[in-house]
Structure formats: C-alpha cells, structure tokens
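Re: the request from the purification team.
They wanted to know what the chain is likely to look like in 3D before they choose a buffer screen. I agreed to run a prediction and write the result into the notebook, where they can find it.
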Amino acid sequence: MLRNIPNKIDQAMLKDIVDETSWGRYDFMYLRIDFANNCNVGYAFINFEDPYYIIEIFRTGDDPMAGSEEPFPGPDNPSKMRRSVENAEHVGEISA
C-alpha cells in the first residue's frame, strides 16, 4: 500500500512515477478514485513481484535521507502531553 498520494495524481501519472524506478517489477496497481470529486483518495495498492523491489522505489534521488525514517516528533502541546501521561497512568486500572 502506498499512502499520502497527492489527490490530483491520476493512474497514468502514478504509473509513470513508479515506472521510473520499478518498471517491470510489479504486476498490479490500483489507485482508488473518487469519481464525485474527480480525484484519487490518497492511497494505492501495488503488488511487487519481489518484496525487495519495494525498498528500491524509495531509495532514489540525491537525498541521503530518502527511504529512511525520521525521528518521531516530540510533543508540541503541553496540555495534550499532560492528558496523554494521565491516560497512560490509568491504562489497565480497574475502577471499583
């Protein structure tokens, strides 16, 4: 599953993008379209013939960070952080 696809990309555009690195390495692609709004819904299913081909599609370009994870962002809202900590403290407790 490929997520976060810009909604104005159509099937042909997505195929061109994927074919830049993976031409002939997949046998199925489905980009769901919202016909009422004439755009995609942000995700596609691609079946690669070999799982190793999946890695190559993300290891392209000059960006050394391409295909690697970014660190998870820290909390940016103190009240949300406080609620999360309070909720985490009560997980698993049974009220009597």
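For the purification team: The beta strands are 2-3, 26-34, 39-48.
Please add any questions underneath this entry.
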